[in-house]
């Protein structure tokens, strides 16, 4: 039996290679190395390549992005891709209505952004890659501290809102026509869903799991200086507590599953943490160019993108972001708190 001869590029009548006839497995290898914006352009080239892209085994490379404040006359949402060190512009659905200074991004999870309009007192979920939109129940025009998308999948979504001057939080989910209010002992800084339970971190650093019986861990230091605390779930399923100790220094604890206690660490392995006021997440760094493992990526007081090395306790400048004062028209908080992290998703 003769050996199977691999299919080669066919030549068109004009003498040029017909790239649509490229072998499927080769196209698939190319797809896996593409960032999401390049993947979208790639699948639009021809029917053959688009068909290959529909195969779930050929997925593009997913990188962490930093969403930047909009320009006064934007063409869409602007993101800074960390590994590639370049900006990406994504045209949002109903772009004009989003950026007539009435809509602002206030949260993100799994490829979705949370947009809030103080003008209308409404909120909606937007996937800037797929173009999907989900309208949430009216929440009112009162300014809140942050909105968290706690869960997002085909069956359900859960959104929580925290207020900087009010205890507890409000929550809504898929199929609900209103927001439910939940009380807490103190004002909350963060909330996350981990292994089916809700965990909160209050203004004093106390972390509490919302289950029966209630369980709480007080912070080691009762201080408000450089107050920033967040809860992050790793891809491995661990829960991490992050605390900002000074302008350029962070501390990290991991919840021990056996003793159910917090263990401070300076080694999170191949992961990198991305933290901000609105949202924070954990990302596997080793397979992405220019990303450093065991680091915390954050925005410093000079609006620089920086990385804090947990092992050495040092800060490194990653990129000077072009976000001048003229880009501050739509926001009230300091600029470093306006930026949020984003992981693009095609779903």
UniProtKB/TrEMBL annotation:
Residue ranges occupied by any KIB1-4 beta-propeller domain in the UniProt entry: 79-309
InterPro entries in alphabetical order: F-box-like_dom_sf, F-box_BR-signaling, F-box_dom, KIB1-4_b-propeller
Pfam assignment, any one: Beta-prop_KIB1-4
F-box domain boundaries: 23-57
PANTHER family: OS01G0183800 PROTEIN, OS07G0183000 PROTEIN-RELATED
Protein name per UniProt: DUF295 domain-containing protein
